[in-house]
Each structure stands twice: as C-alpha cells, then as structure tokens.
Specification:
This protein is mostly helical. It has ten helices and five strands. The strands form two sheets. It has a three-stranded parallel sheet with strand order 1-2-3. Strands 4-5 form a two-stranded antiparallel sheet. It is globular, with a radius of gyration of 17 Å.
C-alpha cells in the first residue's frame, strides 16, 4: 500500500480540528496527545493497520490500544474518520453522559475501541495479552498454506504509562516471549498530568527496552509522515532484538 502524503497530511489536520472542537465544546478533556500525535494516527489508520470498519470484530483485524486513555479524542477522531460507527453527532457529545465518546475509551460502548483504558499502564499490559493471544491462535489453528491468524497489536503509550510498574512487567514479559507481533508507540513528550515529566522521571527508556529484548526504533520527528511510515515498516513485524 502506497503512502499518500497529501491525503494523510490533510487527515492529520482534520483530526486536530475535530479534537479541538470536541474538547472546546465539552469544556473538558486533554488535547496534548490528540494534537501532538495526529500524524501518528494518520499513518496508523491510513497505512499500517489492517482493519474493516464495517466488520469491527473481524477475527484477524490488527488491534490498536490507546493506553494513554486520557487522550481519548485521538482515538475517537480516527475511528470517526476511518468509517467506524461513530458519527459526528457523537463527536459533538464528547464526555457527555450516555455518549459513545466518554472521557476514557470504553470497549463496550464504542465501535472500534478494543479495550477500556483508564489507569495508566493498563492498556500497555492489555496489549501484551492480546499479542500473546494472537500467537496462541496462530500456533493452534494456522496450517501450511492456511494462515488464518496473523494480526498484530499496536499501542500508544505516554510517559505516564511507562512510569507504571504494570507496563514495565508487561514489557519484560513481551521481550521474554519474543512477541514479534507487538508494537508500542511511545509518545515521549516529557509531560505528565502533574507537570513536566522531569520532576519525577529521568530514566533512559530506550536503553531499558533494549534490555528487555525489544527492537527499538527512534523516530526523530513525529510530524514527518515518511519517517513515521519507515518506523512502522521497521516494526512490521516488530521484531525483538536478535530475532
């Protein structure tokens, strides 16, 4: 699949606009991740992910988890623009009672949301379980010439996620199991909900994940669509070190 820079760039700008309007209308919500990661979403939903919005529970779909669930408008914008059952009327009801766009993504409420994420680090742990499930399904049901299961799991994590013990334990297990179908996208913006991440967090995350056995790729400019696409290609499949 080719990368249409013009269309994806326009889509990123439209997603930013949706997010700003929704947060402004509700007078609440978080804009940092939705605005800063717009190009990440454009390349994910417009290039990297394998999905069908008309069949959101297709068994071999790629799975996307927004572990940084406070940035929920990022996910809602891309689900809406990708054709999932999330109309503009629900975008306008962001964070309102009984809407399909609650403050944190809820899997039983919104089409295309794979898991409920609220506590930081939880979605990262969920994604490891999903990647393990994919490997188990492939081992038990795939036959030569009949590869039924080969889906991958992608997750967006922020600084707050990677400060949590549950994310560290899950990452360690993923490295140990050499989960070549798992990709974490780290939004390293040096910010937490309490303020600058430097107040409480200064570790070298890249080196830590290399130590876990992950294959780590640094994307220098998260607004560069081509650079992001090359990063995803490097992570498709996302091979742990040494594989």
């Amino acid at each position: 699949m080719s990368l249409n820079i013009k269309i994806l760039s326009e889509a990123a700008d439209q997603a930013r606009g949706l997010c700003m309007d929704a947060v402004e209308a509700s007078k609440s919500g978080h804009l940092g991740l939705p605005l800063g990661c717009a190009e990440m979403g454009a390349v994910l939903y417009g290039y990297a992910l394998k999905y069908n919005p008309d069949k959101p529970r297709w068994i071999n779909r790629d799975i996307f988890v927004l572990s940084a669930g406070h940035g929920s408008m990022f996910l809602y914008a891309w689900l809406h623009m990708s054709g999932y059952d999330l109309p503009m009327s629900e975008i306008k009801r962001f964070r309102q009672l009984d809407s399909k766009t609650p403050g944190h993504p809820e899997s039983h409420i919104t089409s295309g949301v794979e898991t409920t994420t609220g506590p930081l680090g939880q979605g990262a742990g969920n994604s490891v379980g999903m990647a393990i499930a994919s490997k188990w399904l492939a081992a038990n049901f795939n036959k030569p010439g009949f590869e039924i299961f080969d889906f991958r799991t992608y997750a967006v994590c922020g600084d707050g996620d990677l400060m949590e013990g549950v994310a560290s334990e899950a990452a360690s297990l993923a490295g140990h199991l050499r989960l070549s179908n798992l990709c974490w996208i780290y939004d390293n913006n040096h910010v937490t909900l309490d303020g600058p991440a430097s107040w409480s967090f200064s570790e070298d995350v890249m080196t830590r994940f290399v130590g876990y056995g992950w294959n780590v790729t640094r994307v220098a400019d998260a607004n560069d669509l081509m650079m992001l696409a090359r990063g995803y290609e490097n992570l498709r499949p996302c091979l742990p070190a040494g594989e």
